[in-house]
Each structure stands twice: as C-alpha cells, then as structure tokens.
Amino acid sequence: MKLRQGYKLIVIGDSITDCDRARPVGEGLYHGLGHGYVNLLQSLIRCEHPSFIVQLINMGISGNTIRDLAGRWQRDVLEHEPDGVIIGIGINDVWRKYDNPMNQALAVLEEEYERTLNKLIDSTQAIGAEVMLLTPFFIEPNKDEPMRADMDRYGAIVKTVGECRGLPVVDLQQVMDRFLAYTHPSTLALDRVHPNQTGHMAIAKAIVEAL
C-alpha cells in the first residue's frame, strides 16, 4: 500500500477505530474522524506529506466483530470505491467469550474469523483496492493469561493471512508489548482493551511506518 495524491483510504474496525467518529460517514476536519488513531493518522500523513491530499474515512463501529463487518461491507466499504482499506478487527471476537460467557454464540471462533477475513479481502481486491491488516491486541503482559493467549492466536491468523496473500500487516500486539516491557497496563488502558492517546499515537505511527 502506497499513498498518492487523491488516495481514498478507508479504515474500518471496532471501538478502537470508531472513537466517536462522525455518522454516517466518518470524515472531514476536526472530530469527523473521531479522537483516536485514525485522526492522528491523518495528522501524521499531513505533517509528513503536506503537498498532497489523502481522503481518509473512518468506518469503525464500537462493539463490532468481523461478523458485523461482513454484514456492512458492501455499504460501508465497497460502495465508497476506496483505493485502499485498513482492517483492524478481532478484539470483540475474542472478548465476547469472556465478558458475555452465558452467550458463547456472540464470540467468533477462529475458523469463522479466518474464513470471513479472507472473504472481506477477496471482495475488496475485486474492486481493485489495496488492503492492509492490523492485528488485534490485548494490553496484558502475561502471555499465559487466557484472553491474551486467545488474542495472540487471532493475531497469528491475521499475520498468516497477510503473509500468504502478500499484504502488509501491522502487529499492534507487538506495538503494545513495547510499552508493557516498561510500564503497567493501566498506564495505557484501564480495561486493557481501549488505549489512551499514547496508545492511539503508537498505533498511528506504526501504520505510517508501514505505508
């Protein structure tokens, strides 16, 4: 994925992406892109490349799993005819197993997750758009902690799919682990899921480095 003048880039995912972005389409100045990494990404791109314009669109929706993305992919991605799409999904697919254990049907198991991710990539590439993948993450240093262990497996799926298909992948778990080597998870996220501005800036910088 390489940006150019007039490039239309959609970023889609869950609450980590959403961050109170504008509805129905998250774009424009000020808070149209939300207050998270998508907004910071636009600022970094503008700072690094002030000579050209990138149309950035935030289509994140809080609480979404990859199953939800599949249900709205035509409307929220394909109909916008983007040049590129960044997909960051998986946290809720795993989290529903833990925060709603009485309804396990809400969780998306690994086989469905991988199958659906490949379908989303197929439909996106079919319209000529480029794809970048972001791994899900859990801000927890203990790799044996059950949710962290599950999240690592889903992250491995994303990396494997990206490698097999020749797509750029940003390992956000690795980004968060860099901080966790020196600090407690609560300094980045009280619930170990939703990062503060430091975490969002780290995500935005990692994406810029991969572009």
From TrEMBL:
Residues 11-200 form the SGNH hydrolase-type esterase domain. InterPro entries: Ester_Hydrolysis_Enzymes, SGNH_hydro, SGNH_hydro_sf. Transmembrane segments: none annotated. Pfam families: Lipase_GDSL_2 (PF13472). GO terms for molecular function: phosphatidylcholine lysophospholipase activity. This is Lysophospholipase L1.
